[in-house]
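Hi F.,

I've been meaning to write this up properly since the lab meeting, where we talked about keeping a consistent format for the predictions we share between groups. The idea is simple: the sequence comes first, exactly as it goes in, then the structure tokens exactly as they come out, then a line or two of notes. No screenshots and no reformatting. I'm using this chain as the first example so we have something concrete to point to.
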Amino acid sequence: MGTLVVMTDRTPTIVVSRRVATGRERDFERWNARIRAAAERWPGHLGSEAQPPGESHPGEWMIVYRFATPDQLDAWMDSDERRALLDEGDLLLSEPVREQRLIHAAPDSAVTAVMSQRVRPGAWDAFRRAHAEITPVMRDFPGFLTCELIEPSPGVQDDHVVVFSFASRVDLDHWLHSKERSEVLELIHPLIEGERTLNVVGGFAGWFSTGTAGDPPRWKQAVTVLVALYPTTVVLGLAQQWVAPDAPWMPALLLSEVVSIAILTWALMPLVTRLLSGWLRR
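Output, unedited:
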């Protein structure tokens, strides 16, 4: 978890996470080479990358596949050849496979939500499992785009932060008010301490659009917003705990959203887009 996967504009992409059983690492590497070679022969395949376990995803292999069109990606995912290889590969794993699908870049109406919570000591594994369970449920909701878990950074922030995007505010609200989300929050409530905070930011167009054909790719827009949004969310959460830790949840959430959007719109985003202008326009 905590891995930022970047895709080119409007490229259908799927990210597959696998935990290999102890002692089966060499077998897995050989099997992984076979399934990537099989995907390479499939129509529309643009490329794949395999990232072995590292600091950002300890114990997990992350494999990223990119295809030219959603239909070609679907054809590979549903193929008999892939299913047969998966049956072999499942014998090498210690946990079920996790898949995250990123089909198109976010439209102008997309909204991003940042949820921050502090996990109780010793409860990280349970929280991580709960997050792995919620992502496939969220993915089935209309308008889902991405979901990312960011782990705590020692000396910077102690919260676990979940960043997720939907194609529109209507789609996001459908998820936020769903029975499925309520059930998951009840599941993770015993695992966290203190208040959970949620900030929502609207579409990116007003921050980046130049009225020309040279607008930055959507993934660059998303990364830039995250650079500004993440510290804003952390600071506002700490400020709320310090100034009014017992404030009612709903008014505190509304005030936090208003303040975060104001800070981003009139302060941070103009500064960040100027600093990153060369990279954004390349």
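Notes:
Confidence is low (pLDDT under 50) at residues 1-10, 103-108, 209-214.
The longest strand covers residues 192-201.

If this format works for you, I'll send the rest the same way.

G.
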